[in-house]
């Protein structure tokens, strides 16, 4: 798959089932007054934001969930403040069914100063982003998350930089899949195999515990995040076109 181009979104938001929309928000480039954004949050969201110890984490949560509301409200043509959300068995949020006449599905991820919001129509979606400048013990974690195929691929790499990039590529693609199916990190992540190429040309996910028919359902989309970040989206075979939008004050 070719790397995506981040574009300015259209004035009128709409989406078809064959499309996948990904919105990128940079914490330093949001041109709304913070007071206005906070006013969009529900009492539950405000309570959650205040539970974070550090101000930077409170701020990131507030921006993430207010922008989520503005973007979803744009698709649904309704007041962002009035949106209500439900939480699945494993904690995955969704729009309350009574407000979701279009059957919009979404998923969120954030790391460091970037927020990603993925949108589909009718079909499940999962997205993950990681800031890979942070210090981690790559080799020890690789033993836990890699499948046998992936361990062989990883062990053949020569440089530490290559290993770090491949580790985060693997991690984001697997987490995006687990978020798409709605379980999060409750499964043995080493039982999932993914294409570790920089820009996946096969778009494949191989889950040994699934049948061939079940595996075919899921499709991997890679995202070009530039330096320091890695991200991935997993959607279904219905989604064929990826649209990537940069957001500032255009909702």
Task: Outline the fold blueprint.
Layout: E1 6-7, E2 19-26, H1 34-39, H2 43-50, H3 55-76, E3 85-87, E4 93-95, E5 104-111, E6 114-121, E7 126-131, H4 138-145, H5 148-155, H6 160-181, E8 193-194, E9 205-206, H7 212-216, E10 218-223, E11 229-236, E12 241-247
Parallel strand pairs: 1-12, 2-12
Antiparallel strand pairs: 2-6, 3-4, 5-6, 7-11, 8-9, 10-11
Helix pairs in contact: 2-3
How would you describe this structure to a colleague?
By secondary structure, this protein is of the alpha+beta class. It has one domain: Ribosomal Protein L22, Chain A. The protein has 7 helices and 12 strands. It has helices at residues 34-39, 43-50, 55-76, 138-145, 148-155, 160-181, 212-216; strands at residues 6-7, 19-26, 85-87, 93-95, 104-111, 114-121, 126-131, 193-194, 205-206, 218-223, 229-236, 241-247. Strands 1-12-2-6-5 form a 5-stranded mixed sheet, with helices on one face. Helix 2 runs antiparallel to helix 3 (55-76). The protein is globular and about 50 Å long. The mean pLDDT is 88.
């Amino acid at each position: 798959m070719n790397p995506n181009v981040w574009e300015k979104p259209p004035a009128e938001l709409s989406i078809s089932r064959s499309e996948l929309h990904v919105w990128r928000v940079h914490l330093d480039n949001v041109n709304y007054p913070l007071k206005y954004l906070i006013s969009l949050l529900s009492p539950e969201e405000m309570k959650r934001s205040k539970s974070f110890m550090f101000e930077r984490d409170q701020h990131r949560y507030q921006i993430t969930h207010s922008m989520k509301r503005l973007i979803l409200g744009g698709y649904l043509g309704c007041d962002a403040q009035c949106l209500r959300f439900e939480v699945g068995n494993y904690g995955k949020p969704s729009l309350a069914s009574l407000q979701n006449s279009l059957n919009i599905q979404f998923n969120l991820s954030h790391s460091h100063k970037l927020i990603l919001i993925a949108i589909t129509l009718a079909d499940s979606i999962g997205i993950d982003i990681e800031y890979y400048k942070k210090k981690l013990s790559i080799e020890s974690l690789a033993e836990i998350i890699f499948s046998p195929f992936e361990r062989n691929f990883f062990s053949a790499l020569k440089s530490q930089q290559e290993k770090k990039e491949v580790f985060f590529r693997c991690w984001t693609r697997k987490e995006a899949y687990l978020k798409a199916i709605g379980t999060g990190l409750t499964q043995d992540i080493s039982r999932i195999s993914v294409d570790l190429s920089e820009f996946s040309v096969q778009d494949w996910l191989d889950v040994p515990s699934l049948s061939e028919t079940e595996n075919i359902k899921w499709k991997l989309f890679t995202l070009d995040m530039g330096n320091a970040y890695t991200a991935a989206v997993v959607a279904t075979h219905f989604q064929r076109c990826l649209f990537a939008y940069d957001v500032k004050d255009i909702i």
